[in-house]
Amino acid sequence: MKYIDPHIHMISRTTDDYQRMAYSQCAAISEPAFWAGFDRGTAQGFHDYFRHLTEFEPKRAAQFGIKHYSWLCINAKEAENVSLSREVISMIPEFLERPGVLGIGEIGLNKNTANEATIFQEHLDLAAKTNELILIHTPHLEDKYKGTRMIVDMLKNDPRVKPHRVCVDHVEEHTVKLALDNGFWCGMTLYPVTKCTPARACDIIEMVGTDRIMANSAGDWGKSDPLAVPELIQEMKRRGHKESEIKKVVYDNPLSFWRQANNWKEWPPEPSTNGVATPATAKAGY
């Protein structure tokens, strides 16, 4: 079954991962801006990173017939540096009209601090002024419910924010209804230890249904699996879910959310051979 991974950090993955994802019928991905494994010291470092996301990574993905999209922000882990964050936010409009940019993200909270909340709201202001989609990062483990509640309150307190144009990511059993009941889309992250297993994600689907919900791997520098979404497909099949229900979660829903993006150009899936996507033209050297 073809699928979309709407949250994966391919800058941290090898080319072999792209190949395995293509063999597993990955049609498209989106890559949110995030932490690079260390705190960056200058706005120029983020400028180069945004160029990597919007110029280089789409070419690397295209070698395997995978469509690459991106999101732009300074992430919550680095938002404690308010002056740097404001420099980075001021650069983002330069990139928003580039092909494949879906909006502002992944913004949110890490330790639920005042500085993180300030920078989150300044990202919201930019998104509102430019009418961009928003992708939300919710905190890990013991901070998750409190942080998700804080994020939802900040979103609801800004009347310019349209819930149907926001995806609250990394939801779990105790936070999924906070997103859905307030009109937002939500993402389940299939990531060991700090987020969901495929079995837990399937439990959540059986609890809340398939509307406005999607699944992702959030594959990054840490221990993570770029084939986590296919594992969810197999778990849903094992439990007897209809193919149409599975496709809705892993393909139709992320595509429906993305289609609201300012930059969206209708995307036909690449031709395939034996179920594996193959690009018509691939540039060597990426």
TrEMBL record:
<dbReference type="GO" id="GO:0046872">
    <property type="term" value="F:metal ion binding"/>
</dbReference>
<comment type="similarity">
    <text>Belongs to the metallo-dependent hydrolases superfamily.</text>
</comment>
<keyword id="KW-0479">Metal-binding</keyword>
<dbReference type="Pfam" id="PF01026">
    <property type="entry name" value="TatD_DNase"/>
</dbReference>
<feature type="region of interest" description="Disordered">
    <location>
        <begin position="266"/>
        <end position="286"/>
    </location>
</feature>
<keyword id="KW-0378">Hydrolase</keyword>
<dbReference type="InterPro" id="IPR012022">
    <property type="entry name" value="UCP005295"/>
</dbReference>
<protein>
    <recommendedName>
        <fullName>Metal-dependent hydrolase</fullName>
    </recommendedName>
</protein>
<dbReference type="InterPro" id="IPR001130">
    <property type="entry name" value="TatD-like"/>
</dbReference>
<dbReference type="InterPro" id="IPR032466">
    <property type="entry name" value="Metal_Hydrolase"/>
</dbReference>
<dbReference type="GO" id="GO:0016788">
    <property type="term" value="F:hydrolase activity, acting on ester bonds"/>
</dbReference>
